[in-house]
Specification:
Elements: E1 2-8, E2 11-18, E3 40-46, H1 60-63, E4 67-72, H2 89-102, E5 111-116, H3 118-129, E6 134-140, H4 147-157, H5 171-179, H6 187-199, H7 206-212, H8 216-222, E7 226-231, H9 237-246, E8 251-254, H10 267-278
Parallel strand pairs: 3-4, 3-5, 5-6, 6-7, 7-8
Antiparallel strand pairs: 1-2, 2-4
Helix pairs in contact: 2-3, 3-8, 4-7, 5-6
Length: 279
């Protein structure tokens, strides 16, 4: 995957690109206007917190047959600059939209969005803020929490992370990403997630603030884009079903064969659903 940066009012946003392989799409030459003459709309992959766009490195090659795939890092995660304070989901969406609009490698025109876990909420908010800039959405395992569920999860999920000179301060991050990794997730993949988590530093919990303060009910009901909602068997199945019921005209799919490691073992099944939906 190629890498690039786009400047926004909140600093530089890091983006990964994987070019379409079947239809000859290529990055523009210097001074050339990007074009989608021979490719489908780009697919923007929105990562779960506290990781980065690297989360999609396994599934991206399965999605890039006829379209460019782009995976940006949200502000404060991966290679993107960190904001000075915790941001709301609306502020994150505004910044990612700004970065996409300024990214030299992205063809102009509407894009499709793929969100996983907290990235689903970001996709919904981006579609709300930029309705003409988004064509379709595919959201996988949606954290559609009620206000009561959000309040119950918020204190623990947003507890500050502290690292110091003692190696033991990394123990929780190691347990979360590597030691307790799901069956079916290779060590190297889990280790990569661990590294991306550490890149967020003591801001790792900031994404949970955005997720657990998002007005899911209101925002999902306002969505008017064609939307695919996919539930795996691993987590959030009932929350995902609830989310699909709130989106007007949403197509809901439950993959009973995806039971763990959704973007690793389940990558082929998820890609199958997404590509069929996008056309």
């Amino acid at each position: 995957m190629r890498r690039a940066y786009a400047s926004t009012r909140l600093g530089q946003i890091h983006l990964r690109f994987l070019d379409s392989r079947e239809r000859g799409h290529r990055p523009p030459d210097e001074g050339e206007t990007p074009s989608l003459t021979a490719a489908e709309p780009p697919l923007i992959c929105l990562h779960p917190f506290p990781y980065s766009g690297a989360f999609f490195e396994t599934i991206a090659p399965l999605l890039s047959g006829r379209r460019m795939v782009c995976a940006p890092d949200c502000p404060g995660f991966g290679g993107s600059d960190a904001p000075e304070k915790m941001l709301s989901m609306e502020e994150l969406a505004e910044t990612v939209l700004e970065a996409l609009g300024k990214a030299a490698d992205l063809p102009r025109g509407p894009v499709d969005l793929l969100g996983f876990h907290s990235g689903c909420l970001l996709a919904v908010e981006m579609a709300r803020l930029g309705p003409d800039r988004v064509r379709k959405l595919a959201i996988i395992d949606v954290p559609y929490f009620t206000p009561e569920e959000q309040s119950g999860r918020y204190p623990k999920s947003t507890a500050p992370v502290r690292y110091d000179g003692d190696l033991a301060s990394l123990a929780d991050a190691w347990e979360f990403s590597v030691a307790r990794r799901l069956d079916g997730m290779p060590f190297n993949r889990a280790f990569g997630n661990f590294v991306e988590l550490l890149r967020a530093g003591e801001r790792a919990h900031w994404g949970y603030h955005a997720t657990l303060t998002y007005d899911c009910a209101t925002r999902f009901r306002l969505l008017r884009h064609e939307t695919l909602v996919v539930a795996s068997q691993y987590m959030l199945k009932e929350h995902t079903r609830r989310a699909a019921a709130e989106i007007p005209g949403a197509r809901f799919v439950e993959r009973k064969d995806v039971t763990r490691a959704v973007m690793e073992e389940g990558a082929a099944a998820i890609a199958e659903e997404v590509l069929a939906f996008l056309g």
